[in-house]
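Hey L., structure's done. Input below.
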Amino acid sequence: MNHLLEEYWEDLKWEALMTWERLTLTDLDQVAGNIAKLEKLIQKKYGHSLWESKKQIIALIQRYDNLAFLAACDQLKEQLPKFWPDLNTNDIVHINCSRTRLLHMIKKKGRSREQAMEEVNRFLRQFID
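Output:
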């Protein structure tokens, strides 16, 4: 989970800001994706135990990674090849409604991290609008 927090921190910090209202953007910028810093910050601001802080961080990461909260997984799977014709059936099965797996798959297809993030965000907008 540490690597997910670090790698996707720029997106996750906005989720964190909505999850923990006592944290400020300045607090989260100082965390910079470091799980130990985030655990300590949650403990300090909320009085939670280390274990409770860890559980909440894991839940945050799982919510971020799970695309099924936007639409039914079958609907997402149906739309993936329309948006990315180069994804095959095995790719789609592997992605399994995981944002991080989708990002990884798009990067494997030759996009930079930034391009992959932008493409995934554009894809997801169709389910939000």
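The two ends are 30 Å apart (CA to CA). Residues 2-65 form a domain with the Protein Yjbj; Chain: A; fold (CATH 1.10.1470).

-- N.
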